[in-house]
Amino acid sequence: MKEKILLGLTGAALCLAACSGSGSKTAGDTTTKDTAIMAMADSSKSLKPKSPKPAWGADLKPEMQAVLEKLDSYGDKPIPQLTAPEARKNHTPTDAVMDLMKENNILMPALAVDTTGKDIPGGLHVRIYTPKSGNGPFPVIVYYHGGGFVIANLDVYDATPKTLSDMVGAVVVSVAYRLAPEHKFPAAHEDAYTAYKWVVDNAASIKGDPQKIALAGESAGGNLAVNTAIKARDKGVMLPTAILTVYPVAQSDMNTDSYIKNAGDKPLNKPMMAWFVKNYLNNMAEAKDPRINLVAANLKGLPTTTIITDQYDPLHDDGTMLADKMKAAGVNVDTKNYDGVTHEFFGMGAVVPQAKEAETYAAGQLKKAFGK
Question: Is this prediction's pTM over 0.85?
Fold first, then answer.
């Protein structure tokens, strides 16, 4: 019961990306919780796949392939055949990584981060990651998990915020925004902004520096990060210091080159997208809403943005198109693509070398923005 999924809503068939389920073997928020789900780890062990490379992944890295093989081994029904509650019980890439680490005796070093849960106004729950060393004030990162706005939760996406907190030396606030189909568009976007505004107003209470607040997210969460910055600008609220968006949902066309080329990839593919569309949108006309179709939004005046993409991903072109549109709008943008890996690779630094590289790059970009 876990998940790491993402959103990719598209034009005539808005797209939301996903990988599997949406739970986690860890429940609730635990103070001084040191065990990261998939944070970075130095290991001399290298995972090796047991089967030939899939037809769609000639350049797939062996460690990434091993994770996908493990995910397939659970035998879960494909997401499109399930209801949302059923899909939330599926195994996820997080499960696959954790099981591979156990099977191969790959140790996970504890990160120097304390973890607590907090309920904030608006009926939202957040998980706060605080560096153990130092008294602050620390820079703050507001983080939005992936999951196609339908299946994800804080447990499944525990690795990224914990890793960023440790590597950047920042307080990270991970937001449990409302999910569809119980809460349709634009509930998640509203919650994302509500959480950001709370952090802006209350940063000092969580050992944060109210003048140094960044936004970060993966896939659906990457969409929310950019949207929140836009809304802050439009409402005259303090702009974030920077944005980190990892393979974001950014446009409404499911016929881009990467959607066509990667239509049958794993763990994300087109059939999943259609399933998420059905669960997320109130109607197909919403696919053209600039909150979904970010490339059509007013992007002027946004802060420095880092965009991470990967090779085997229908959303690859979403990220590159967003980068081009942001640059055209005068935004300072830095991008990096990682070959041989798939959607969901970010946060797998314990076993996938490219993920470790991406985490290091992302942390470096945020530290630079914070002046660290």
Answer: yes
Q: Which two tokens stand for residue 192?
A: 């994302």
Q: Determine the Cα–Cα distance for residues 168 and 185; give it in Å rounded to an integer.
A: 32
Q: Give how many domains the chain has, as a whole number.
A: 1
Q: Is residue 331 part of a domain?
A: yes
Question: 43 to each of 104, 108, 109, 348, how far by Cα in Å?
Answer: 11, 9, 10, 13
Tokens representing 37 are 């789900």
- In terms of residue numbers, what domain contains 265? 62-370
What's the rounded Cα separation, in Å, for the pair 127 and 157? 11
| 207 burial type by CB count under 10 A (0-12 exposed, 13-18 middle, 19+ buried) | middle
- The residues facing 217 across adjacent strands are 144, 245
Q: Is 166 a catalytic residue?
A: no
Q: Which residues pair with 312 in a beta bridge?
A: 342
DSSP class of residue 75? -
Could you tell me if residue 46 is inside a domain?
no
- Model pLDDT for residues 286-322, shown as the tens digit of each residue: 999 999 999 999 999 999 999 999 999 999 999 999 9
Of residues 22, 43, 165, 219, which has the active-site annotation?
A: 219
Measured CA to CA in angstroms, residue 268 lies from 70, 183, 253, 362 at distances of 15, 23, 16, 22
Residue 201 catalytic? no
Residue 68 and residue 58: Cα distance in Å, rounded?
14
Asked whether residue 40 is domain-assigned, the answer is: no
- Which CATH number is 211's domain given? 3.40.50.1820
Question: Which residues lie below 8 Å from residue 120, measured CB to CB, with a gap of 6+?
Answer: 126, 194, 195, 198, 202
| Catalytic residue, candidates 91, 145, 316, 343 | 343
Tokens 């003048």 -> residue: 211
| Residue 219 annotated in active site | yes
**Token pair in block for residue 273:** 């997208």
- Active-site choice (76, 313, 317, 318): 313
- Model confidence over 62-114: pLDDT tens digits? 999 999 999 999 999 999 999 999 999 999 999 999 999 999 999 886 799 99
Determine, yes or no, domain membership for 181: yes
Q: Which residues are paired to 113 by β-bridges?
A: 131
Q: What's the number of CA atoms in the CB half-sphere (13 Å) around residue 317?
A: 17
Provide the pLDDT for residue 16: 36
